Amino acid sequence: MNWFEKFLLICSGSNLKLLEKSPTEINKHVGIGGVILFTAILAALSSGYALYSVFDNHWAAIGFGLLWGLMIFNLDRFIVASMRKSGNFFRQFFAATPRIILAALLGIVISKPLELRIFEKEIDKQLNVIINRNKTALQDSVNARYTQLAGSFSNERNEIYARINALRGEYNLASTELEKEVVGTATETTTGKVGYGPNAKRKEELKTAKKEELDAYLVQMQPRLAELDKEIDLLSQNKQKELDAAKPTEEGYTGFAARMQALNELTKNNKILGIASLFIMGVFISLEMAPVLVKLISPKGPYDYLLDKHEYSFKIFGWESKEKMDVSSNERVLVHKKRSDRRIREEI
């Protein structure tokens, strides 16, 4: 065995002394150690990219990636090393079920950040779609709220302007009637005689009254209109400030959760991309489960028999040590009892 094979055997969690006695098992355990090692490397890369997308810091991403990779390596190594080839297949499968479920979960966790990297260009485009959609939704929400707040002011201002327009219309109508009366235009409300007569005088008085009424209403409503315009302008400024402060931007919406949302929408809307995502996830789940499945489906070999013998020898040694301790304890009790009986007889 060269140094690399020994290193992979250490990664597999196998006993090197027992493997030296069963050389036919070395290749199988080298393969298991390789799968565990490369799974840990992929986990380190995946977690490092995920952390970099969150904090945008190379050193933090490298440190956390190495830590996560070592944890996955140690966990996989423990899972494989703790499995024993004892009992029938169904018993072994039942015992390995929790380990298989854990391996599947780890495969999903490892695959997602790498999927984000693989589909980075598509995700960036989808992020722009999400940002624009969020902008539109935010603008609609803010506009609806401020429209409701400004509704009473706008309605009152519209009522005032409607009254002003009505008074102005009455004044214009009175002016037109006066002009027709003076010119001598025959209508239902004019006499048709040219000149300034009694009827023209009445129409002039009506025009003057309408003008005075219009001017008086304008003077009366001018302060209120200024207040209403000020309130509406203030609400409009507040609305614009809120939109500027709360609207999502491309720089502020590129985190890990946002990219996961974009990937989720892409896989739902694009069947080809969804299938590709499932295959990538399946590959990583298979890689993570491979050491457990290989250990489960492989037949019991010389290494397993030697391992059982080695562990059983410790069980026998433990039982023998316990029996010796029990015998020694019983002997001490008997000796103490004999001494007590002899002391009692001497005293008698």
Class by alpha and beta content: mainly alpha
What order do the SSEs take from the amino end to the carboxyl end, as H and E? HHHHHHHHHHH
Outline type: elongated
How much helix, percentage-wise, in residues? over 70%
Q: Which percent band covers the strand fraction? A: under 5%
Over the alpha carbons, how many angstroms does the gyration radius reach?
Answer: 46 Å
Largest sheet: none
Number of strands: 0
Low-confidence runs (pLDDT<50, min 5 residues)? Answer: none
Distance from first to last alpha carbon: 78 Å
Compute the number of helices: 11
The overall number of domains is 3
Mean pLDDT metric: 78
Can you describe this structure?
It comes from Moheibacter lacus. The chain crosses the membrane at residues 30-52, 58-80, 92-110, 272-294. This is DUF4407 domain-containing protein. Keywords: Membrane, Transmembrane, Transmembrane helix. Helix content is 86%, strand content 0%. With 348 residues, the chain is mostly helical. It has three domains: 3-133 and 256-300, no CATH class; 146-246, no CATH class; 301-348. The longest helix has 49 residues, at 198-246. It is elongated. The two termini are 78 Å apart.
